[in-house]
Amino acid sequence: MEKLYTAIVTAKGGRDGHIKSSDGVIDLDLKAPKAMGGEDGYANPELLFAGAWGSCYLGALGSVGKRDGVDVSEATVDVHISFNQEGATSYALSAELHVHVPGINVAQAQKLADAAHKGCPYSKATRNNIDVKVIAE
């Protein structure tokens, strides 16, 4: 495997902390969401993960669409990342990827969505680690 790029982000303070990338592009405070006793109006790990996964996933969907001759340039994905309590002191993530590809039927969109999920690096990283549902709409 050949490394093409490495992102470096320094985190301090956990969920109520700060993250900053080595290139200065990301430099922001984090707070737990209000539903978890924090404050609205701040980024949190689940928001950042959802945004990163969604962007990466659409890249994979673009590759699948190109391979299959389907225009997916207007496709969108809503990534739902849930922070779940398993026990008194254990937690786990779960995810839903809601995929919309204009101009094709839901069955064809589901086929493309599943193929993109197989190839997306974020999907590969989470496979068999968290509960993930891919839903074409």
TrEMBL record:
Pfam families referenced in this protein's UniProt entry, alphabetically: OsmC
Transmembrane segments: none
Domain of life: Bacteria
UniProt xrefs under InterPro entries: KH_dom-like_a/b, OHR, OsmC/Ohr_fam, OsmC/Ohrsf
First and last residue of the signal peptide: none
Family the entry assigns: Belongs to the OsmC/Ohr family.
NCBIfam families membership: organ_hyd_perox
UniProt name for this protein: Organic hydroperoxide resistance protein
